[in-house]
């Protein structure tokens, strides 16, 4: 009888221990000289790692994120819970949701994606695309490209 009462507590303690162990994987003090060299190009911007120490590339949209040692979302994104119960997981989502129309006449799934494409374009010295409007690019006039 006593055992049934104790079980939940035992499980909680185990979970707790796991959390503590994970947190311990962060250096007590951030020593930047022990970080891997900072990434050159990050399409989704740079971010501090989950320990708040080393500079890493931000995770892209739809990428798993969160937790100790987990990925940190890039610029303009947040780590959001998706799905229900056991299927739930945390993924990076663009804070500003909805498609946008770029100055190149292309419709982008999100402003985060447009920014990422710009970051890549920059490495190729291509001109950046700006946001013309929220929503899809309207096929203005007859010119459908
Ligand atoms: C940081 O790490 C470097 C290389 O391991 C070491 O030489 C240095 O003493 C460390 N600094 C601190 C403040 O711990």
Automatic annotation (TrEMBL):
SUPFAM superfamilies: Growth factor receptor domain (SSF57184), Kazal-type serine protease inhibitors (SSF100895). InterPro entries: Growth_fac_rcpt_cys_sf, IGFBP-like, IGFBP_rP_mac25, Kazal_dom, Kazal_dom_sf. Keywords: Disulfide bond, Immunoglobulin domain, Secreted, Signal. Residues 22-95 form the IGFBP N-terminal domain. The keyword Hydrolase does not apply. Residues 1-17 form the signal peptide. CDD domains: KAZAL_FS (cd00104). GO terms for molecular function: insulin-like growth factor binding. This is Uncharacterized protein. It comes from Knipowitschia caucasica.
């Amino acid at each position: 009888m006593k055992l049934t009462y104790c079980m939940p507590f035992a499980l909680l303690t185990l979970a707790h221990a796991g959390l503590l162990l994970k947190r311990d994987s962060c250096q007590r003090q951030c020593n930047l000289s022990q970080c891997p060299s900072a990434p050159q190009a990050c399409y989704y911007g740079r971010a501090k790692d989950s320990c708040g120490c080393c500079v890493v590339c931000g995770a892209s949209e739809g990428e798993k994120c969160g937790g100790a040692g987990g990925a940190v979302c890039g610029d303009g994104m947040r780590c959001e819970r998706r799905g229900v119960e056991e299927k739930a997981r945390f993924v990076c989502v663009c804070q500003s949701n909805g498609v946008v129309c770029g100055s190149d006449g292309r419709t982008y799934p999100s402003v985060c994606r447009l920014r990422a494409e710009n970051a890549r374009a920059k490495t190729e010295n291509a001109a950046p695309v700006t946001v013309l409007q929220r929503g899809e690019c309207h096929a203005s006039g007859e010119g459908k490209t």
